[in-house]
Amino acid sequence: MSGVTFKHPEYVKNLPLWEQVDDACKGQKAVKDRRETYLPRNNPQDKSPEASSFYDAYLQRAVFYGVTGKTLGSLVGAAFATDPTFKFPKELEHFERNANGAGISLYQLSQSVLRHILKHYRCALYVDFPDVGPSRNRAEEKAKQAYPMVHLLSSKAVINWDTVTVGNQVKLNLVVIEESVSERGKDGFSIESKKQYRVLRLEDGGSGEFVYTIEVYTKSKEGVYVGGGRKIPTDYNGDPWSYIPFTFVGAVDNSAQIDNAPLLELADINLAHYRDSADFQESVYYTGQPQYYASGVDWNWFNEAKKRSIYVGAKVMLPLPQGGAIGIAQVDANTLAREAMKDKWQQMKEMGARLVENGSATKTATEADNDDAIQHSVLSLCVVNTNEAVNMALRWSAKFVMPDVGKLTKDDSFFEISQEFSKQGYLADLSRQLFESAVQGYSSFKSWWEYNQSGMFPKQTYEDEQANVDIEKEGRLDLTGE
Question: Is the pTM of this model over 0.85?
Answer without folding.
Answer: no
